[in-house]
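Weekly structure sync - notes
Attendees: PM, LS, DV (DV joined late)
Agenda: review two folding runs queued last week.

Item 1: First target. Sequence and structure tokens pasted below for the record.
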Amino acid sequence: MHTSTEDRPSQPRSATSVSERNACLAALSPAAFSLLKPHLSRTTVPGGTVLWATELNESNTYFPMSGLISVVYSMANGDSVEVANVSREGAAGTIFDSGRSARGVVQFAGSFITIGSHQLLDLAQRNAEIGQLLSACQGWLLAQSQQFAACTALHSAEKRLCRWLYQCIQKMEIDTLYATQEQIAALLGLRRTTVTLVARSLLAEGVIEYGRGRIRVSDLAKLRHAACECCDSLGRESWPAARLIEQQSMILDE
């Protein structure tokens, strides 16, 4: 991955200014985060950037503070489908894909905290809390890939599209996405015409507004109602930060 010096904001002034913008890092104790802090760097990455792939010699882990990373698998014919995505609720990178069979693509531009995966693994071996963070993030990616597989096989195109929109909005804590219908169709393994028909229906029902690659959610409650049950299985209580907080509470109660 390459970003120009102009694309990189100044380094955060404190640990808090970094960690509070990624829920996973925010869930760490000050002691655990202090071990990570010297090895963290911050960068801004444009949409469409490939963070890791089989042909790239990259070995980093990314903690989004904004934006969203799609984990995609590609077929021999060039088609690809999203099997997981991560924003402020977690982390992604080659550390979770030892076979390097997936690609990590910045779906929506944003700011990311990065650390070398080998360095992160070393710290995880030295600190149980950082080890729990890695386990929680890996479990989250696996849970998504399993749920997405079931969703693709069993749910309608409309419910899947609404699920994807709802999750992106929820994870990034925004109400507007900049994505084309072609982009969404490719991620969900749908035809562009199918996405167009669903978008028109949602527009007519007052759920979204869209035009020129911009989608604004007008009624989040209606969007959630139109989405499939996968939103419940992949809700906030399943996010890595929630698991970390629960584990720490259990330790304190012992």
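Item 2: Second target, run right after the first with the same settings.
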Amino acid sequence: MPRFVPSIGMEVHAELLTSSKMFCRCPVDFGGDPNTRVCPVCLALPGSLPVPNRRAIEFVLKTALALHCKVAMKSIFHRKNYFYPDLPKGYQISQYGDTNPLGYEGYLEIPLIDGTRKRMRIRRVHLEEDTGKLMHLGPEGSGIDYNRAGVPLMEIVTEFPPDLASAEEAREYLVQLRLILLYLGVCDGKMEEGSIRCEPNVSVRLEGSDAYGTKTELKNLNSFRSVQLGIQYEIDRQTNLLSSGQKVDQETRGWNEDRQESYLMRQKEEENDYRYFPDPDLVPMVFEPDYIESLRQELPELPLAKWDRYQSELGLGQEDASRLVADPEWARFFDRAVELGGDPKSICNWMLSDFAKRLNETGLSPSKSKVEPRHIVELVQSINSGEISGKMGKQIFKECFDLGLSPKSIIESRGLSQISDPNQIGQTVRKVMAENEEIVKKYRAGQIGVLGYLVGLVMKQTQGRANPEIVKDLLEGALNDV
């Protein structure tokens, strides 16, 4: 049986976190009553003229720089002509060409399972406006909500020939790209709300062939899982068609999440069907080198670099580093705690265990909780110095989470500092041994397992404040001193 290999291109659309739309002042928000955030510009009423959103342009330039793109120092908007009901103008304001988009010829690296990195070339990063939303109303027919029409939309397209060669790589590409957008603060990354929409182009070809197969475009993928499953389904579907002597048609196909299969939506358009031409209502964008450099200096530490630093400089394992980096807010909390002098591994352990558990139980994010980075640092330092035990630390952290009090204040107000004075602990050890002579005899007769019971009695009498290691050492010394 002939072997077929897949090639996958990715078109990712990201709605930008601006307060207003791309070419008008209508507010941007998710949900709400249909057609309540519209104006003559985004409804394309006669005589209305677009005015570009400077913030949106800045967001796309920052993304282009983060993706190692060349920046078009002079760039123009084009009209992309097609006729759907959700497109009020009859065209979409977009960008066209090889070197005209705000960013071009960049790349994104993804980590592979074997620990290596693979570079995915980026063809372009450009700016456009979003369309409206078709709403199917059942027997009453269909309607169109134009609240989304004109929302700033960034499109990131991979290079051809594609570098992505599996559904797993495509998923990881999307994971890393979404993280970059979150760290830059240009998109909220909510795939379930359509803030990020991924449209893979999938084709297969005979292994060793230089000719690429006919591609299909997948839509309606609203999760990482859907992206991976949808791409794998298309790979298998096309492979089966070609293996049985049939051909693959160039199509746009939707993804049915419930049935886990793709379906035909329409025949795929060709590029010349859109009849691109420069938009006469918008002047060219011209950038100065100093301005681009100032944007470059504003870029934060990006997720893959942070992941490397957590391991090489802070000594964290791959899994712990991945969990911290996966959420920018989580990573900021950790970084601040380390800046305050916290031991990285101890801070990480508390964040990924007790803190994460309480956040999950309450549905809060770190910034919405009452716990601050300095609280974790105080707690870790108190445990590491022997002031309190790890067990006491868990109870103190619970109060810190519930009440927002600092661990130091809780320790001082309740007198919870750990007793580490051997003389003070020794008095309690002698008292427990005197009150439990039968248990002492059993130990001295060879039943050393009762030692734990005696340790527990000492801890109980000191209200859990005695240093358990010192308690154990003193008990063993006294019990063996016959």
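Discussion on item 2: Residues 301-414 form one domain.
Action: LS to circulate a short write-up before next sync.
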